[in-house]
Every structure is written in structure tokens, then in C-alpha cells.
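Justification of computing resources. Each target in the renewal requires a structure prediction run like the one illustrated here; the chain below, 445 residues long, is used simply to show the kind of job we budget for.
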Amino acid sequence: MDKNQLLKKIRDAGVIGAGGAGFPAYKKLDARVDHIIANGAECEPLLYKDRETMIQAKEELFAGLEIMQNITGAKQVTIALKEKNRDVVKGFNEFITRYGFNTFINRDVYPAGDEYVLVYEITGKRIPPGGIPLQVGCVVNNTETIVNIARAVKDIPVTAKFITITGAVKNPLTTIVPVGISFDDCIQIAGGLTTEHPAVLTGGAMMGGVEFDLSLPITKTTGGLIILPDDHYLVKKKTAPQETYARIGHGQCDQCSMCTELCPRYLLGYPIEPHKVMRSLQMTGKAKERVSLWAQYCCECNICTFIACPEGLDPKSICVDAKKLLKENNLSRTEEELESLFHPVHPSRQAREVPIATVYQRLGLKAYDRHAPFVENHFMPEQVNISLNYHVGTPAVPVVKTGDRVKKGRVIGIVPEDQLGCPVHASIDGAVTRIDEREIQIKAN
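Resulting C-alpha cells:
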């Protein structure tokens, strides 16, 4: 099978980045590179999705990496993990020998799974500011994405998701669920709630969003559900209105610069300095725009907000607001500015990395630090809601109508082949009961 045939199979199977970004895998692989990196570092605390993917589907992981190598011509392949998952490597020995791939074990720090960090740690190269790994000859994919690539070549579309369900639930676990299953159904799989008033962190404690609607669906990019009481510190911090965090930041920031000194991108030499962005709260007009440029390369990891700031302020959200201002006004650094501001890696970088144990303590998560082992489940949801636009690019267009009966794996939404995007598939057998611009609902037989 040639490169174009493989890429078409990957597209037709609906493979997108399963780690959260949702970028169509076929497009990322349509390149010649030197190095493929399988990202199993699992950046976020409490989640075990990547660990269990590597354990439960290791044959497909290695098969997927070989497919990626054949497509891209990469000479090197590295599987990246964290120290806490060193034991997983023992299960790789046979495959490592067979395929000649490498493993890289990073420290138990946050954000070890950031692709900028991984590429630097593994290759010694730095991705250009605002750039992508391809610019330094690398492709980085989440381990589950790679498993889905192996399945795609066998004409198995993406209809299910590895996911960790943890926090305020009776039985934290990692399992496989149909795409489109509701948060509430996932919570039932985990034995139900242990809090009367739940909030759901989607995708992770540090970078994930907050949802209160338990009817929302799992998408191809959902890595985990962390259930917390709605009065938990993290929930309150993440849902504070812009008026509140901006007003407090305006009055209390003393420019100590700790947010900058612990910023992982700053420590890698990138022109991001959150403490300078905090100054923008005192400014208007052109001065505010110029200071906002120090936010342009913020990766929104939240170390500044949840770990660094001694005043409990929210530099990350101020940076997000600043980036929005830059986008609205079409502002960015000039090439000359970037050349002068892109500094060497900070000599104290490793000493300033944030241990995961510190993250648990600072975020009030120690009570929820429970293993979430893999558990097979046979739960069949009464309905699923399949998202049409949870990938980067053009949303899928429905090719079914209300009342149609569909089988698991059938294409229900397509993206024109000349546009970036992937088709979506039914994740259960059933009847189409609702279609709108966002999703297709299927009720089980």
C-alpha cells in the first residue's frame, strides 16, 4: 500500500488527535520527517488514559508507529513516557527489539507532555516560536492517535475512546466508551457520584475546562473526566468571570515575576513573560497592545496561575485575554523581534520544573489521587451524540437523515476531500433521532 492509500485510509477512518488538539492525523503525516515521537507522557495529573492505551493496545501502538514511519520516512521513532510509568516499558521489550524503536522516560513533572518540551528533551531541537514540530523534522502524536492509525489501515473507524473517569466517583477507572456517550453515563460506569453537586473538569485538572451539564457527550478528543464538588477551589478558580480576575489582578499584582520565572516556555527561551502581561491591566491603547505581545506564545499550561503566583492571581487568563486582543487587532512579533527575543534555554530550567506531587498539593487534589485501573465495561448507552466539529478544520456535514437506521462504523458525516477535516461515524447501532449543526443523535436499538 503506497503513502497516498495509507493517508486516505487514515482520513476515511476519522483519525484525529486524541490527546486534545483534534488535528486530522492524515494531514500531519503528509510530510517527510526525521523523527516520530509517540506522546505517552500524560501531562495532566489524575489521568491514566495514555498509560492504559500503551498497555492494552501495545501491538497496535507499534504497528501504528511502523505505518507512520513508512509514510514519513522517519529514521528514528521514540515513545515518550514519564517516570511513574517506567514499568510499562517492560511490556515493550519484545516490540522494541523487533522494530528498533526507542523509549524516553521523562521526569514526573508538569508539563512533561507538552510537545515543545518533548521535542527539546528528545532531539535537542527547539520548535520555532508559534511553530510546529514539523519545522524541526518531527511528528508528535498521542499514543491513542497512533493506535487509531493502526486500526484505520485495517478499515476500522474511530468509534470508541479510551478515557479516565476519576475524582468524586465511587470507582475511579480507565475504560473504553463509545464516542458520543454522555458524561452522566460515564459516571455511572465509575459507580456513581460521591458528591451531591458535581462539576466536571474535561481534559485535565490544569488545562481542562469546567462543565456542569452531565448530558454533554464524550468526543474523540476527550482524555478524561475529573469530577469535583462544585465548590472546589479549582472549579471556582476556573469559572471566575473576567471582570473578577482582571479587577483583582489590577489591584494586587506586585510584579514579583514568579509567573515568568516558572513558565516552562520562558525557561525554554521563548518570548513569553506573564508578569509583563499583567502590566497591561494598568494600560490602554497602543501601550496595552505592545505589552500584550508578551502573551503571544503562552501555552496556557496554568503553572503561572496555580503554582507560581504567591498572590493567587490568574496570569494565565490575563494572557488568554491578551492573545485574544492580539488576534482581533492582527498583531504579532516581527521577525526581527523574534530573532532578538528568542533566548537560549534557561540554565536553571530543570531545577524549576514542577513536580507532580506539588501539583496535587497546590490544587487540592491529594484526596483524589487514586489509581484508575483499566476495566472492561459492557455498558450500552441508550443514546449517543456524535459531534460534527470536534476536529481542526471544516465541520462534517451529515449524510444521514432523521429516522435512518445505522450500524456502528457507518459514515454519518463527511468533509469534502479538498478541505481539512475527517468524516465521523456511528458509534452504536441505532436510529438517527436528531440532527443539528453541531451533532447527530443516535438512539440504540
